[in-house]
Amino acid sequence: MVKIKNFINGELVAPESNEYIDNYDPSTGTVYSLIPDSDERDVNFAVEAAKKAFRTWSVTPAPHRSKILLKISELIEKNLEALAKAETIDNGKPLWLAKSVDIPRASENFRFYGTGILHFASESHAMEDSALNYTLRTPIGVAGCISPWNLPLYLFTWKIVPAIAVGNTVVAKPSEITPMTAFLLAEICIEAGLPPGVLNIVHGYGHKVGSAITAHPDIPIISFTGGTKTGETIAKTTAPMFKKLSLELGGKNPNIVFADCDLYKAVRTSVRASFTNQGEICLCGSRIFIEKNIYEIFKEKFLKETEKMIVGDPFDDKNKLGAIVSKQHYDKILQYIHLAKEEGGMILKGGKSIHPEGRCSNGWFIEPAIIENLPFDCRTNQEEIFGPVVTLTPFETEEEVLLYANSTKYGLAALLFTENLNKAHRVAAKLQSGIVWVNCWLLRDLRTPFGGVKRSGMGREGGFEAFKFFTEEKNICIKF
Ligand code: NDP
Questions:
Q1: Could you say which of 3.40.309.10, 3.40.50.970, 1.10.287.690, 3.30.559.10 is the CATH number of the domain covering 253-438?
Q2: Ranges of CATH 3.40.309.10 domains, the chain
Q3: Which CATH architecture is the domain 2-249+454-479 placed in?
Q4: What is the mean pLDDT of the chain?
């Protein structure tokens, strides 16, 4: 059985404890590899290596850093098949999705930030003829990067690449539930010639490795993507230490369908936005609000389109949904479907666990669930489920739907469908959300600011926002 290793100071090493955690293939429910059960000692070694590497990496010219990042991007592309297969086994997502989204995006993250760093400049402000201000942006030191399990390599690289591109060094922890592609990335970094200590990856539990990273006095900056509750814990630890902090947290995203939409587009896009990656994308739209006079026709077409969302073996390309990432998460989703019934919801379709014939019969699979007849403020409509579960709710006016949409504690993303441009602008501006997609979903331009409002997060990543986050700004004022 494969034993995953930590990546510290350029070497693949066993954890100090020599203990391992079982790593499951969710599509079969069996253990297929072992994850280092690392602790504070491993984090301390990683921080020492990162501090040492910072002395040279922070002054390495940007074109040289860029060259190495582009080499890693190339090697990810070259190893696409193997990485996609690893992601599918680890996470349960369909292989076609890992091949077309997760791994290409991880490679693109290296290319995007690896070229972006060549264009990152700072502002200057002339005070007529008396003085000149300019902004100096310098790397901060050792950055702590912690990522979740839903888009493992994609989100892991989304953090670590801008951090090292601007000259920081990194101590990172991928989710203990999906560590495999981060391990494979370490091998790629060695092959690409990334200097030892620039990227260090410590595997293990959040409450051990994650908290050792966030509490470490020599890590002044933390970038975290994960659940809101964990974000709260991290904020409590880091605030009194005055660490720079970026939090990308949970969501309960509204999807608003106005009667004047292009119905065909709205239905197809809404099905994708509801169930892609088993609904385990923080940007999925899980509360669909439909204008009353098209409610029945939308519902009928939405139910029909969902029939195409076949669930089963993630290695079979005809399946659109794979396995739920872990037994714990599978149980959580089923409990929420049960709660929805208790709250008076009517299950229009799906919501049951599935046991596909053959090698996946003991895996964790759930049919996409469509639920109606629930009030907008019930728990099912307020709490993040993070699975293939959506609710349908009719509305009559813009004011009413804005009240529904903005009623949760979250504010990550929103979708809206209308062919009326004025309405699109008006409603988009009033949605309490970091991202609004109009007549589309998951259309991503990496240059745009990415992040949420309310309890969906703090700060923005993406584009030059990420470079700004990972650097310290200093204003220098020179009087003539
Ligand atoms: P968690 O918050 O449980 O975990 C995220 C990461 O934090 C994991 O690596 C985890 O380790 C680690 N962790 C757990 N406890 C601590 C701690 N005390 N200190 C430091 N690190 C810790 O989230 P999930 O992995 O369950 O991911 C799903 C969540 O992520 C959803 O809420 C989803 O909305 C959100 N998300 C947000 C995105 C965004 O961009 N806003 C994007 C993608 C997901 P371990 O695995 O060992 O627990």
A1: 3.40.309.10
A2: 253-438
A3: 3-Layer(aba) Sandwich (3.40)
A4: 98
For residue range 224-264, what is the model confidence (pLDDT) as tens digits? 999 999 999 999 999 999 999 999 999 999 999 999 999 99
Residue 134 has pLDDT above 90, yes or no: yes
Mutate to test the pocket of ligand 1, among 90, 146, 328 (most ligand atoms within 8 A of CB): 146
Express each pLDDT in 311-368 by its tens digit: 999 999 999 999 999 999 999 999 999 999 999 999 999 999 999 999 999 999 999 9
Enumerate the H helices of 58-145 as residue ranges.
Answer: 62-78, 80-91, 95-97, 103-116
pLDDT digits (tens, 9 = 90+) for 411-468: 999 999 999 999 999 999 999 999 999 999 999 999 999 999 999 999 999 999 999 9
Residues of the chain with CATH 3.40.605.10: 2-249+454-479
Listed in sequence order, the residues at least 6 apart from 383 whose beta carbon sits closer than 8 Å to its beta carbon are 252, 336
DSSP 376: T
Burial of 207 (0-12, 13-18, 19+ CB in 10 A): exposed
User: Which among 175, 383, 412 is the best mutation to test ligand 1's pocket, defined by most ligand atoms within 8 Å of the CB?
Assistant: 175
Q: Give the integer Cα–Cα distance in Å for 160 and 354.
A: 37
Whether 434 contacts 450, CB under 8 Å: yes
Task: Tell me the percentage of the chain whose pLDDT exceeds 90.
Answer: 99
71 has pLDDT over 90? yes
Distance 225 CA to ligand 1 centre (A): 6
- Residue 120, ligand 1, Cβ within 6 A: no
